[in-house]
Design brief:
- The chain has about 220 residues and is of the alpha+beta class.
- It has one domain (about 1-220).
- It is about 55% helix and about 20% strand.
- The protein has eight helices and four strands.
- It has a four-stranded antiparallel β-sheet with strand order 1-2-3-4.
- Helix 2 (about 30-40) crosses helix 3 (about 45-60) and helix 4 runs antiparallel to helix 5 (about 90-110).
Length: about 220
């Protein structure tokens, strides 16, 4: 019995060591995928995987603590309030729910962005000696309506509350449908960290990925 338990223990230990080795050897494109799925897709499982990857070389204190639902709702709320702040008070008060749903539809399209890694290269880190950065050129494809542009603020200012509510509802339906795909290219940097013979990859400001994507998304709606 003791011999059997010893064999089971050794097998479990070997599995744990193999799992650790696999985590250490994660390729840069897979690390990008964890960042992308966390900060663009806002996927809870991806956040957990990313934090598990970061702990061995950054420490648990430097992982990410994010409430995904709250983060998304806060972004919807910020866009909604920014838009309403430019409207007459009565119009803004009468259209708040419709404006919120409009921006929710837009941000859901951003969450549904897909990607393809087109090229990976290593360049010297200009901020540190004997250090390298892995640059990934990525095609990002997000859904957009076939024939509907983004809401024009100057048009909205001239509308009555009822007209604007109807206008926002129609826009929301169009963005929820979004039959087309628009593709933009971005470069994402992963800084290489050497520790105990392993190479790890990390990006200190992954929110830049979302900022650039949001900017590209909204610009594409105005062409």
């Amino acid at each position: 019995m003791k011999g059997t338990m010893r064999i089971v223990f050794l097998m479990l230990l070997l599995c744990i060591q193999n799992l650790s080795a696999q985590m250490d050897a994660v390729k840069p494109e897979h690390v990008f995928g964890m960042y992308f799925n966390t900060f663009v897709k806002q996927d809870e499982r991806a956040l957990q995987q990313l934090n598990e990857y970061l702990v061995p070389f950054l420490g648990a204190e430097n992982t990410y603590t994010i409430d995904m639902n709250k983060s998304f709702n806060d972004e919807v709320q910020n866009l909604t309030e920014s838009f309403l702040a430019h409207l007459p008070k009565e119009t803004a008060a009468g259209c708040r729910p419709e404006a919120r749903e409009y921006f929710r539809a837009l941000l859901n399209n951003v969450k549904n962005t897909g990607y393809v890694v087109k090229n990976i290269k290593e360049v010297k880190n200009e901020y540190a000696d004997n250090s390298w950065v892995t640059e990934l050129s990525v095609d990002l494809s997000f859904p957009v309506p076939a024939n509907v542009s983004a809401l024009k603020l100057e048009e909205a200012k001239k509308m009555t509350a009822e007209d604007l509510k109807s206008y926002l509802k129609n826009k929301t339906k169009a963005f929820a449908k979004s039959e087309k795909k628009t593709t933009v290219q971005q470069t994402f940097k992963l800084y290489q960290v050497k520790k105990e013979g392993n190479t790890y990859y990390w990006n200190g400001g992954p929110q830049e990925l979302v900022w650039k994507l949001n900017d590209s998304y909204f610009k594409s709606l105005n062409h």
